[in-house]
Design a protein that fits this description.
The complex is a heterodimer. Chain A is mainly alpha-helical. Chain A is built from 13 helices and no strands. Chain A has a domain of 209 residues: ABC transporter involved in vitamin B12 uptake, BtuC (Orthogonal Bundle). The longest helix of chain A is centred in the middle third of the chain and has 40 residues. Helices cover 38% and strands 24% of the residues of chain B. In chain B, helix 3 runs parallel beside helix 6, helix 5 crosses helix 6 and helix 6 packs parallel to helix 7. Classes of the chains: A mainly alpha, B alpha/beta. Chains A and B meet through helix 8, helix 9 and helix 11 of A and strand 5, helix 3 and helix 4 of B.
Chain lengths: 304, 244
């Protein structure tokens, strides 16, 4: 537990906690936009941008690489939109194509850059699986700003998000621009992704967005509580996963966060107060009992 | 003055032209059913008029002006199947959505809005279900919630996409009562409707549509066998002649 007390570990823990909260809340929007796979496609698509950003500047400059990541993720999003609207290919297929093409391109570029002089020490590999341990105080500030931004966007426009997700046509009828809402959604999603990939990497990033939202769904029937719970689950997974990963020498943070998050999901799936497996079984059993006893009393009444 | 004027409206869905030179105008205080076979462009017509689907040509004017300027006077009830009823919210909250324009963007609804939404639910006989999860409502109840949401908008012109499809007799009566009340108040309602048997009883105007307007006017003048045959093509004629 000594490592826990180290200064750097504290920064890492705070960062992953805040990142978990922000992505958990953002994930609720993706969940109800029925675009869980979209976040996966966009995080994978960020990789070529990271590598190109590095190759252009020649040194590991985080802002440039994040900008590269954002640009390639947005290009991917536009391509998915274009494929869906102008070909007969369905959205999930389009996402599948873009995901693998961009990720493949990213890996290819990464291999090339690693062969360049000085490229080997670039640490670009860490964007694939993430490297939370390398985070410092400045990263915590980035995450904090990001988390506050996500919460503000969600809080200020809460009823707008609700109607946009539930009934976009009606929202447009009321004068709420679907294009504007989509734009804000995509911008914030990309922001969360490019921040998150430094911690958990492009492959696991979508889990950070999707799993807390799905878990939260099992506990509540209110959109507001779903967003709050999802934030808590995401933050909790970030916190606990990071602490566990500090217990062993060289244990990777990202995967432990995801495993913790998945554990929360399994608990929700079984014990969830809404649609949880246990509660459903219990409801069925009581219904059956009521049914049996009422039909028995009918029988005895009939006999009299 | 006409509440709604449509001139040479043409629209397509992917490669197919679904609306071709649609022109008509609607007088205030009328209750019009839009009738036509599947794929005739009924829902598309509503969506194109409301600018939810792009048009190729033609123009639509609302109260002699544009939709943008008249947005608050136009209400829309989408098809029940167009939304995901699994969304975590309750009936009152959905009705409240009809007031979002009036609440103001980025502002939170107040008590008065909640009360208004509650009144509207009550009008639809749904007061007891205000706090009920929308996923746990029956199809008819969901349709009533949609109607209640449209009512709180207090619009002057309503478009409703198949509000009577797949609902029980009680809900059908409740909805028709409300539609007639709206007409009495001088509001105008256009309803996409499927049941040819009830057109004459329920609606004073009818718009027979099959990609273009076959006939439009007062129901008893326009809703003739010939016009219906022409709208539905040969198939219906054979079917009807076979049964008589």
């Amino acid at each position: 537990m000594n490592i826990l007390l180290s200064h750097n570990a504290q920064w890492v823990i705070v960062s992953t906690l805040i990142l978990g909260m922000a992505s958990g809340m953002m994930g609720c929007l993706s969940y109800w936009k029925r675009q869980s796979l979209m976040s996966d496609a966009l995080s994978h698509a960020a990789l070529p941008g990271v590598v190109i950003g590095f190759a252009l500047v020649g040194v590991k400059s985080l802002p440039v690489m994040m900008l590269g990541a954002a640009i390639s993720a947005i290009i991917a999003a536009l391509l998915i939109h274009w494929i869906r609207s102008s070909t007969r290919i369905k959205e999930d297929t389009a996402m599948g194509i873009i995901l693998s093409v961009f990720f493949g391109l990213g890996i290819m570029l990464l291999t090339m850059v690693n062969r360049m002089p000085g490229g080997n020490q670039s640490g670009l590999d860490s964007f694939i699986f993430g490297q939370a341990a390398s985070m410092v105080r400045k990263d915590v500030y980035t995450m904090l700003i990001l988390a506050v931004l996500v919460m503000l966007v969600l809080f200020i426009g809460f009823k707008e998000w609700k109607i946009f997700l539930f009934d976009p046509d009606f929202a447009r009828g009321l004068g709420l621009s679907g294009r504007l809402m989509n734009g804000i959604y995509l911008t914030v999603l990309v922001l969360v992704i490019i921040t998150g990939i430094q911690v958990v990497g492009v492959i696991l990033m979508s889990a950070l967005l999707i799993i807390p939202a799905v878990s939260a769904r099992y506990w509540t029937q209110s959109f507001k509580w779903m967003v709050i719970l999802s934030g808590l689950f995401g933050g909790g997974a970030g916190l606990v996963g990071t602490i566990i990963s500090t217990l062993g020498e060289g244990w990777p943070t990202g995967p432990f966060i995801i495993v913790t998050s998945s554990t929360l999901f399994v608990i929700s799936l079984v014990f969830g107060a809404q649609k949880g497996l246990l509660i459903q079984a219990w409801q069925l059993r009581t219904q059956r009992k009521v049914h049996v006893s009422s039909s028995q009393s009918n029988l005895t009444q009939g006999g009299e | 003055m006409a509440v709604l004027t449509v001139n040479d409206l043409t629209a397509s869905y992917r490669k197919n032209k679904v609306l071709n030179d649609v022109s008509f105008n609607v007088q205030p205080g009328s209750l019009t059913s839009i009738v036509g076979p599947n794929g005739a462009g009924k829902s598309t017509l509503l969506k194109v008029m409301l600018e939810l689907h792009p048009k190729l040509s033609g123009d639509v004017s609302f109260f002699g002006s544009t939709l943008n300027k008249m947005k608050t006077r136009v209400g829309y009830v989408p098809q029940r199947g167009s939304v995901d009823w699994d969304f975590p919210t309750d009936a009152l909250d959905v009705v409240l959505m009809g007031l979002y324009g009036r609440v103001g963007w980025l502002k939170w609804p107040k008590r008065e809005h909640r009360e208004k939404a509650m009144d509207s639910l009550e009008k639809m006989g749904m007061a007891d279900y205000a706090g009920r999860q929308i996923s746990q409502l029956s199809g008819g109840q969901q349709q009533r919630v949609f109607l209640a949401r449209a009512l709180v908008q207090e619009a002057d012109l309503y478009f409703m996409d198949e509000p009577l499809a797949g609902v029980d007799a009680a809900t059908e009566q409740a909805i028709m009562t409300i539609l007639n009340e709206l007409r009495m108040k001088g509001k105008t309602v256009m309803v996409v409707h499927h049941d040819l048997q009830t057109v004459e009883d329920y609606f004073d105007h009818v718009l027979l549509l099959n990609r273009t307007v076959v006939a439009h006017g007062v129901t008893k003048d326009v809703f003739t066998k010939d016009n219906v045959y022409q709208t539905y093509g040969g198939t219906l004629r054979y079917m009807m002649e076979a049964t008589t």
